[in-house]
Structure formats: C-alpha cells, structure tokens
Amino acid sequence: MTEGIATREPGVIDGRFFLHLGDALQRTGQNEKALDVYKEGVKEGLFASVYQRSLYSVDGLKAQPWWDPNETPYASSLKELEKHWIDIKNEALSLMTDKGFKPEAENLRDSGDWKQFEIFARGKKIERNCRLAPKTCALIGRIEDAAGCKRGQAKFSVMHPGTHVWAHVGPTNCRLRSHLGLVVPPKVRIRVANETREWKEGKVLMFDDSFEHEVWHEGDSLRLVLIVDFWHPDLSASQKASLSPI
C-alpha cells in the first residue's frame, strides 16, 4: 500500500488508503512511519490534522479532542444522566448476561474482552434492548440531539481486565461522544489525541471521537460506562436533517 500511494496514480490519494496504512503501521509498532503517513494525509487535504482523521466530515465544525459539557448545549441533559447514574448502572448490571451484549465487531481490540449493548443507533431506538433497559432508554429518548443523532449511538460498554483497544478514530466529526462512568475500577484510562484521562463513577467525560483515541484496562474488575453520542453543536438543523446515517 505504501508503494501504491507513492505512485500518486489517479484514485490513490484517498483518505481510506492513508487511514488504513497508518493504522497497520501503528499496530505493528511503527509509530513514526504512521505519523509520516498521517502528515502526508494532512498535506493532501485528506485529514484535518494528524490526530483528527475522520472520513465522513463536515467542514467548519469546532475541533478539539476533549470537551467540557458546559461548552455545549447538552450540559443540562448530561447533568440529568449523572443524576440518575445509579439507576442506569443497576439497569446495565441486570443485563450483563443478556444476549444483547455483543462483542466489539470493528476489529479494534488488541487484547481482552469488550462488549456493547446498543440502545439507539443511527437515530433510531433499538426496540428489543430498550424494553430491557426502559429507564435508560427513556432518559436518552428525551434528548433529541442524542436519540436522533443519525451518526451516533447510545450503548452500554463493558470492558474486562486485560483489554487494550488499539488507537483508532471514529468515522465522522459530526458528533461528540459522552461516557458516563458506571463501574470504574483503578488502572483504566482513555487517551484522546495527546491527553489521557480516567473515568469517574457518576461523572461524564466528553470528547470528539474523530480524534485518535485508545483505551487500556489494567485493573482487576470490569469497567462499565454508558456511551451517548450527540450531534456536534455547530451543525444546523438542515445539516442534521440531510446528513446520511453512519
């Protein structure tokens, strides 16, 4: 693939090629070479930056790895989720053996065990799973820019000790991703761009997952969070209506 890109043949200067080549290099420990590929992608106008490499992007949206909810219109909605975090946690724990929890399916795991239970996806409710998590579903359903986010999801995410999630980027810059900590042992952390943070139970972390991010679980018990995606606050109503689902 490196040789193919170097030819500059028609059709070769494509973000997908640069993204997958850089990803393969990172996964084999060739981080400097990966960085060179991403820098070239930025130079070619394929990526916004070496860290922000989404392929389905809208120009002009504010771009930063980490967000304070108070920078968004969603602060009160996130406070409401935090207020009910115990109910949300108990609902999630009651579902731990349910077949609705599916293994991560995007080949993002280097090691370990990581499963997810979708409640909303592509702006639509997952009816079966919502019946099993009615309180959580109702709370999210009241947040229009989360429940109706066609380029996002709402889901429980459970990760077991020994899990490492490869550095990766989300597909679009059209959403902001929130994580509500439900069960958070020590030694579990997430890096977004060049800053690493840890979850706290009952508290929200918010970030733009079009930036490179990576997760390590070096603790000794499960980590459980509620993930809720929101439309990027800079999108207009007409943009939200016209954007295709992802």
Q: So how many helices?
A: 9
* DSSP strand tally: 13
Unreliable spans: none
Shape by Cα distribution:
globular
Beta-strand percent range: 25-35%
Structural class: alpha+beta
Arithmetic mean pLDDT: 96
CATH class type of the largest domain: Mainly Beta
GO cellular component, one term: endoplasmic reticulum
InterPro entries: Asp/Arg/Pro-Hydrxlase, ASPH, IPNS-like_sf
Pfam families: Asp_Arg_Hydrox (PF05118)
Organism: Hyalomma excavatum
Would you kindly provide a written description of the structure presented here, covering whatever features stand out?
The protein is α+β, with helices and mostly antiparallel strands. The protein has 2 domains: 42 residues; 177 residues, Jelly Rolls (Sandwich). The chain contains 9 helices and 13 strands. The strands form 2 sheets. Strands 1, 2, 4, 5, 6, 8, 11 and 13 form an 8-stranded antiparallel β-sheet that branches. A 5-stranded antiparallel β-sheet has the order 3-7-12-9-10. Helix 2 runs antiparallel to helix 3. The model has no long low-confidence stretch (mean pLDDT 96).
Q: Secondary structure elements and their pairing?
A:
Elements (H helix, E strand, L loop, with lengths): L1 H5 L8 H13 L3 H13 L22 E2 L7 H9 L1 H9 L8 E2 L5 E3 L2 E8 L2 E2 L1 H6 L1 H8 L2 H4 L5 E7 L4 E5 L6 E9 L4 E5 L2 E3 L6 E4 L5 E5 L5 E9 L5 H6 L4
Helix pairs in contact: 2-3
Organism: Hyalomma excavatum
Protein name: Putative aspartyl beta-hydroxylase
InterPro entries: Asp/Arg/Pro-Hydrxlase, ASPH, IPNS-like_sf
